[in-house]
Task: structure prediction
Amino acid sequence: MRVLLQRVSRASVTVDGEIVGQIGAGFVALVGVGHGDGEEQAAWLARKVAGLRVFEDAEGKFNLSLHDVGGSVLVVSQFTLYADASRGRRPAFTDAAPPEIAEPLVERFAQFLREEHNVPVEMGVFGAHMLVEIHNDGPVTILLERD
Result:
């Protein structure tokens, strides 16, 4: 599994003209699922996201976690994180897990954040065409991966 994590001041997801998820300060987690991924990867990534210290303290150092700043996470499925653009001009997505495997794992990742780490979570809509508005704060963008 891969999570492209962006620290945000605010973010939202719109589907068919309707906002389906929005947060204030926190993270947007763009989540991709690969072949062979399972609950172990989802749990590890949720733990990492919940505890990652990339929010600034009073001295401007990355010492605070999501809990310390009272932040939320907007989870958006993103199979394109598994794009292979090494050949030609059109990326291949053969390394991405099929929807019947990916969707439950994205949901499970969000559930781990909520239930195991007490993090408020909003969601995009799996498989939908989403307009994601991200106000990247910093900018801070971190790629997390767990094979």
About this structure: The beta strands are 2-15, 18-23, 26-32, 55-56, 62-64, 72-77, 121-123, 131-145. The first strand starts at residue 2 and ends at 15. The mean pLDDT is 97. The chain has three helices and eight strands.
